[in-house]
Amino acid sequence: MKAMSSSLLCAIFTSVLCFATIAAGGDDQFLFSGFAGANITLDGVATITPDGLVDLTNAHERLIGHMFYPTALHFRKSPNSIVQSFSVSFAFGIHPNYRPSQGFAFFIAKSMNFSSAIDLQYFGIFNTMNQGNLSNHIFAIEIDTLLNSELRDIDANHIGIDINSVISNESHTAGFYDDNNGLFNPLNLTTGEAMLVWIDYSEETSQINVSMSSLYMSKPGRPLISTIYNLSTVITEVAYLGFASGAGKDNTRHYILGWSFGMNRPAPIIDIRKLPKLPRVGPKPQPKVLVVVLPIATGTLVFTVGLTVFLLVRRNKKYAELREDWETEFGPHRFSYKDLYYSTGGFKTKNLLGVGGFGRVYKGMLPKSNVEIAVKRVSHESKQGMKEFVAEIVSIGRLQHRNIAHLLGYCRRKGELFLVYEYMPNGSLDKYLHSQDNKPTLSWPHRFQIIKGIASGLLYLHEEWEKVVIHRDIKASNILLDNEMNARLGDFGLARLYDHGLVDSSTTHVVGTIGYLAPELACTRKATPLTDVFSFGIFILEVVCGRRPIRQNAQEKQVMLVDWVLEHWHNRTITDTVDAALHGDYNVSEACLALKLGLLCSHPFVDRRPTMRQVVKYLEGDAESPELTPTHMNFEMLAMMQNEGFDPYIMSYPSSMTSHGSVSDISTTGTGR
Ligand SMILES: Nc1ncnc2c1ncn2[C@@H]1O[C@H](COP(=O)(O)OP(=O)(O)OP(=O)(O)O)[C@@H](O)[C@H]1O
Ligand SMILES: *[C@@H]1O[C@H](CO)[C@@H](O)[C@H](O)[C@H]1NC(C)=O
Ligand SMILES: *[C@@H]1O[C@H](CO)[C@@H](O)[C@H](O)[C@H]1NC(C)=O
Ligand SMILES: *[C@@H]1O[C@H](CO)[C@@H](O)[C@H](O)[C@H]1NC(C)=O
Ligand SMILES: *[C@@H]1O[C@H](CO)[C@@H](O)[C@H](O)[C@H]1NC(C)=O
Ligand SMILES: *[C@@H]1O[C@H](CO)[C@@H](O)[C@H](O)[C@H]1NC(C)=O
Ligand SMILES: *[C@@H]1O[C@H](CO)[C@@H](O)[C@H](O)[C@H]1NC(C)=O
Ligand SMILES: *[C@@H]1O[C@H](CO)[C@@H](O)[C@H](O)[C@H]1NC(C)=O
Ligand SMILES: [Mg+2]
């Protein structure tokens, strides 16, 4: 009887809580079933929708959104006592876009100040510098929908326990263990369905349990992840709770539907009937009447509009484009010439970002979305192979990685091709290294971060995407810096123009850029991941030394950067090669590692070069740094190769080093096609 009345009381209490939508049961318990009118704190791009969903990433930009419980909670009874048991549950939904995107995280942190945190895979709570720092005092559960191998993610659909670091202490593919048969059932985080997560911590055992299920299931008996970690070393006496996401420009949405918390007690149960509804993924089903009327109406409309557009286009030859039947399947990636024309102010010189081997690059701003773009205008003769080329650049447009500048789409006109890239406000790396435009000197941590970033981007291209992608033109001018000075590999697809015979039928080009070309390319002409590794090696040396791959010395002789570094290596004066502009302010062991890797990657023998996976391991300190013994790398061998005329980079070139080599250049040494 007593038990019954108390459970009745409990039920009444809970339902009162639910009806109020939000209610705080003192400091140590709360429940939100939807957030309409709720007292919560938002910052960044987070908003509450009219329906009462918290939308953490309501932005077209790459920005961060946070949501906090408005007050700090006391996780310890007194400053020196242990962190008490607690329990959290929340309901969320991820609305995917056509592109994979980062996830979001629940956190308990010492403050609401995340001003130094960064977006994407750092979820707006961590940054690249504070990984594993005990003074972070951050406990987080990441709901991650992208594979970032440099952060040791297990897959693109997982949940992880993050303690002071975005590298999870423990993680598991999203899903649950079935109560009946004990089998694991995976759940797809990005189907747009609502799901529930529970987090329980016990002060007696220091055990952390994390469970998840779909919205209509009860809490699974066996947790998805269970680990022992004494959170008394992590969570501060008073701490803030909340959610964060730092999604990309891709329109993916991270919604929180409901949330509850209990200190020293289970989190109140979220009544799923009271939760706001997630927006629908995909088109709305139509009422019956419309099914008949609508096709006729739209048919007529489409015809009229089509006719008008046709006539307008006919009249307005200025914006004429080349569009063929096969392009319909690439529709979303096809930009209209008119949009590109207006967005770049009619390809005005004022908006010219630079001129490269293929054409001019202009800055633009897309009219509707206000997204900044860089448009590369390439002229081409033949249209043979165009279909294959477009299919390839569209598939390359699906690449998504923190260190890759996205290719957004393309447009065609007669004799011209336009490639639309994400605009990178800080321009290309070469401008910083070779101090043009009075750019500031890059500090050592920046340089090392750039090398690591590009290594991880290349690893993604070579091994982690669905196809092996070879970049073929890695060099400082194709490394772009975004607004956080994060390095991104740019200029995809261009090398492919050659393969498809779209450029220059008269002079046959070598794909790539002089100084970065692997020697075997001269004979085999076949780009492989290891020819990229070679260019990457030269690139590392260029970043560390602040010198171009080929330089003329006082006697007007061509000096190869790699030879010069190698000479210093043998003379044990390797640190003399580090960029003097750093004034000795750099980390010696990191610099030596980078130089060593640079030499190893640009090894003339293909089979001596490491793969990008090994390179990333060395750079992250996960593998012993490689030995560079005389047998690996010796002078006689290089000298021998050079005497045999194998080494394309000792040949004399016209002074413009940024230009693409052509057969007429190469053939002087008999290594042309
Ligand atoms: N997405 C971008 N955002 C900002 N600036 C860019 C972007 N893409 C290119 N640029 C700028 O335009 C310049 C010219 O680029 P382009 O790629 O045409 O030449 P390149 O890189 O020197 O040679 P290559 O033709 O071999 O790539 C670059 O040096 C860079 O500064
Ligand atoms: C929201 O909660 C905070 C902390 O409990 C309180 O100070 C503030 O007055 C509340 N705001 C509203 C509008 O209720
Ligand atoms: C947030 O922290 C940064 C340092 O990380 C500090 O510079 C800034 O003043 C802080 N902002 C507030 C509002 O406390
Ligand atoms: C950890 O972070 C604190 C404060 O940001 C900083 O002072 C300290 O140097 C960092 N420690 C390490 C090992 O990076
Ligand atoms: C997780 O944390 C525990 C306790 O500190 C530690 O022993 C374990 O190695 C960590 N696991 C990983 C994968 O970092
Ligand atoms: C999850 O669902 C989305 C959309 O239905 C699909 O694109 C994606 O491939 C699925 N992911 C997994 C891991 O099955
Ligand atoms: C974690 O799950 C295990 C297994 O179900 C259970 O025995 C334990 O009590 C749970 N711990 C917490 C803190 O909930
Ligand atoms: C956790 O650490 C605190 C001290 O930081 C200690 O007092 C407590 O006993 C530890 N808890 C467990 C379960 O080991
Ligand atoms: Mg370029």
UniProtKB/TrEMBL annotation:
InterPro entries: ConA-like_dom_sf, Kinase-like_dom_sf, L-type_Lectin-RKs, Legume_lectin_dom, Prot_kinase_dom, Protein_kinase_ATP_BS, Ser/Thr_kinase_AS. Keywords: ATP-binding, Cell membrane, Glycoprotein, Kinase, Lectin, Membrane, Nucleotide-binding, Receptor, Serine/threonine-protein kinase, Signal, Transferase, Transmembrane, Transmembrane helix. One of its GO terms (biological process) is negative regulation of response to salt stress. Gene3D superfamilies: 2.60.120.200, Phosphorylase Kinase, domain 1, Transferase(Phosphotransferase) domain 1. It is an enzyme of class 2 (transferase). Its main location: membrane. Its EC number is 2.7.11.1. It catalyses: L-seryl-[protein] + ATP = O-phospho-L-seryl-[protein] + ADP + H(+); L-threonyl-[protein] + ATP = O-phospho-L-threonyl-[protein] + ADP + H(+). It is a single-pass type I membrane protein. This is non-specific serine/threonine protein kinase.
